[in-house]
Structure formats: C-alpha cells, structure tokens
Amino acid sequence: MKKKIMEIEEIINNPENIKTVDLKTLFNSFLSEIKNRIASYIGDYPTFIEPVFLEENVKIGDDVLLGPNVFIGTNSEIGNYVEISNSIIFENVKIGENFKIENCIISKNSVFNFSNLILKNSILSGINNTEDDIRKIEF
Amino acid sequence: MPEREEKGFSRIKELESINLATDEIRDQVIQTKKEVEKDNKKLAEQLNRKFKSHKIKSYDIVGAIGAGKTAILERITEKLGLNYRILVICGDITTRVDANRIEKHNAETIQINTGRECALNAYHIHQIIKNKDLNDYDIVFIENVGNLICPSEFILGTDKRMVIVSITEGEWVIEKHPMLFKMSDIAVINKIDLLERLGTNLDKMINDAKKINPNIDVITTSAKKGQNIDKLMELMGL
After folding, report:
1. Could you give the 3-state DSSP secondary structure of residue B79?
2. How near does any CA of chain B get to the CA of A16, in Å?
3. Global pTM?
C-alpha cells in the first residue's frame, strides 16, 4: 500500500507527464487494497462506510460521510457536511464545508478555503480561495 | 443560504422534527423532508431492480440492540455454509463487533458506522453496491442499526424486511413500536428459551404483531439454542 501511494504521489507531482490510463489503473489498484483504519481521528463520530484509512491526526467535522475506499493523509482537515468516496487525500490538506468528492486525488498541502463544491474524477492541488482558483486535471 | 436559515436547517436535521422549524422556513423544511423521502425511495427501487436482475435475494434486518439480529444472522450464515456467496452489510453507530462475528461464518461483511445517524438509508447501501460486482453474490443481508424507531423512515431496496424482537424486551415492545411491524414481512420473537424464567406473555406479542399487520409472518426462535431457525429460513425463502 505504501509503495503504491508513493508512486501515485510521484505521478501527480509531475502533472505534465501524467498518463491518465496508467494513473487510473494504479489508483483503482490502491483503493482495492485499502484496509479499514479509523481508530484515531479528531472529531465526533462521522459516518464511515468501510474501508476508510485515516493516517494520524486527521480532523473531521460534523455530519461527514467518508467511504467507501477513502485514504486520508496525516494532519488533513475535513470540514462539516463533507462527503468523500473512492478518493485519496494526501497529508496537510484542508477541505472546506459541504464538499462532495468522488474519484479524486488531492495532493499534499492543498487548501480549499471556501464552501459548497462537488468534485468528481479529478486531480487537484494548490491553495484555492475560491472555486475560480481551482486548476484540475480530469482523469 | 442566509446564515439564519442555515442554522435553522442544521437544527431541524439534528432534532429531526419539522415542528421545530420557525414559521419563515417551515415550508422549506417540509419540502426538503419530502425530497429526501422521494430520493431514498428512488434509490431503494434502483437497488431492488439491481438485486433482482442479478437473482440476489435481499433482506433488511431490523430490531433493537440485543434482540438477537447478529445471533440469528450467525445461525443463518452458518447453515447456508459454503453453498451461497453472502454479503452482509452491518450498520452500527460505531465498532465492527457484529461484522467480526458474522464473517466467521463464510460471509463477506462490510461495516457502516453511522456515527450520529440512527438508521441506514438507501444511499449508504447504494454507495457500497455501486463498487461491487453483483455477479459475485447470491444473498445480501443488511443488519440495520439497532433500534425500533428510525429504520421505519428509510426503505433499503431489499426483497423482504424482517423485524426481530426478544421476549426480554417485555410483552409491550411490539405494541409500542407499530411502524416497523407495519412495514415488515416477517416478525421474529427471539430468546424463547428464556420464556419459562421470564413469564413474558408470548401470545400477546404474537397477537399484537398480527393486529398491526395481518399479513406479517410471525415466528418464535431461540438463536442461542438454534430453535426454529430452519423454519425461519423457510419463511425467508432460503
């Protein structure tokens, strides 16, 4: 699992060279191997549909639905009313309130400083203060 | 959405009662409630079509915590053995205690921890099923979150709903929770091995279930002793 997540990270760090077919295969293979790990997080009882893998110190808001097939990296913050399925969120990511994220990869240190957005089948990164700031690669 | 309205909606969601809506947003709250019910029904119907098209038998199992839902499922999956490919979706506020028990009997399990929600809904099931190849299964059991109130709000798209109570809950338990019995196909009264010791009025429980829903099949069981499990499976069409 660790090896695949590192491979995915390397691919998305070089967006100009992304071969979406290869990435999709690797992405699906990684998601199919995720084991459930929800023992430690900061928050009050979100809904989990397993498998969900949370690394250390993940903060989760109220009325959040995570899963199935979700990986969230260390120190990431998930806002209230967020729903995430079939996605990889790397470390130090901050997601605003009422996001619905499906089949996405969000690279490390990405920030979404606003509310209400539906994201599907995309790779996302960077500091985004409004929806207009988002630069996404569809895959 | 203005902040005041947003707070109003949030409060309504938490308290689950339209009577708490302020006059200004009452119509919107009712409209939202209607839409949620409509969306759940639509998704449940989609799920049922999917199950049927793959010749999968599907069951929603509801009942209070401690009634014996997991114990009965353990008995059933044990008896079905290796002849069937079984998926069990377990709903609980937290933990995967029930899923761990059931998967010892040759069934694949998926746990949903609902956190603050007191019942599974069709969207939860849809999120799991859309990621599965239904050609891999013959039977899907859904063990709902343990209580006798909330699951009546949401149908899940299964062929049958089975409500399980136990005689330890007292002989008024059925009379006090009519909605789930009205909406179920089978009523199981479990733990009858304790009947002599507890002196519960079993006839009253059976009559109450029939009075609320004349079409419901009522069966008494002891999951602990394995009593009437074969008969229950017959009623379920297994």
Report:
1. helix
2. 30
3. 0.92
